[in-house]
Amino acid sequence: MEDIKSGERSAVSGRVRLTIDIRSFKYPDGTQALSDINMEIRKGEFIGILGSNGSGKTTLLKIMDGLAKDYEGIIHFDGADIRKLSPSDIYRKVGLIFQNPDDQLFASTVFEDVAFGPINMGFQEKEIVSRVNDALKAVEMDRHTKKSIHNLSFGQKKRVCIAGLLAMGHEILLLDEPTAGLDPMGEYKMMRLLTKLNRQNSVTIVMATHSVDLVPLFLDRLYILSKGRIVREGIPEKVFTAPDEMANVKLRLPQIAELIYKLKNEDGLSFEKIPLTIGEARREILETLRL
Ligand SMILES: Nc1ncnc2c1ncn2[C@@H]1O[C@H](COP(=O)(O)OP(=O)(O)O)[C@@H](O)[C@H]1O
Ligand SMILES: [Mg+2]
Predict the structure, then answer these.
(1) DSSP code per residue over 97-128
(2) Whose CA is closest to atom 3 on ligand 1?
(3) Pairing of strands 221-226, 46-50
(4) Which of 4, 124, 221, 269 could form a disulfide with 263 if both were Cys (CB 3.0 to 4.6 A apart)?
(5) Residue 50's closest CA among 215, 248, 257?
(6) 280 lies in some domain
(7) Residue 284: inside a domain, yes or no?
(8) In angstroms, what is the span from residue 157 Cα to ligand 2's centroid?
(9) H/E run at residue 138
(10) How many separate domains does the chain show?
(11) Chain segment 235-289, per-residue pLDDT in tens
């Protein structure tokens, strides 16, 4: 796997689009799902919410998409309280991709599904066709326009879901475990696609995941969620620390980092920093061997 991100992490300093301040969110059965969540999402960022099962990732994304409103706290979208925005104000700009595409897709063909949003937004036919084609091209599904949704692979269905939101002109995509259920190559291709949308199409992305090995390769910044609270935040190099600290939040280090950590702490090899990717590890190991 090449190291896509190294050397080209853009200095993201766009304007703040979402400011999240959730003091508490409880489900009707009393489950305390989120507490003291403070986040800031800027234009152009590629952000991860990393957490084990049940840590609150899906709940947080639903609140950010305006689907759950009965939380204590306030969320601002471009400076406005999202509870005061109309659904169409939110849904034209921010969209959630569910973990399971079958929960999101409903039309019979790829074209019809992606066209649904633009049709509802009242565009003329020519504009609809052009939006659908552009969106399907962006997710590399333009060869499958007429295909029945039923006959798509799981990964292709996820791409159609993303296209559906892009066709509506979404600037912020919230993705719930976009790589779950995909094989290793599918996972990698999905992450490359999201990176491309982020870099070339200027889509701001917030994705929930528990895949620690993928995160350092692609994401700018992440929040670690544990039991409904943010326990750490920052660039991957800062957030991934010692294995026991990761175990406390039911996660682990990326495998490559775990190996170098052991070589350093159990076998006495000297490493200046703990690399998170194969490319970085290779450089660090060569450096150590040269000493
Ligand atoms: N509809 C619901 N009613 C009650 N509790 C829920 C509901 N949905 C999720 N939860 C609980 O809220 C917590 C966070 O869940 P969730 O946001 O789905 O976590 P994640 O997506 O990180 O796996 C868990 O304890 C879960 O059991
Ligand atoms: Mg979830």
Answers:
(1) E-SSGGGT--SSBHHHHHHHHHHHTT--HHHH
(2) 27
(3) parallel
(4) 269
(5) 215
(6) yes
(7) yes
(8) 18
(9) helix 125-138
(10) 1
(11) 988 888 778 888 888 988 888 888 888 888 898 888 888 888 888 888 888 888 8
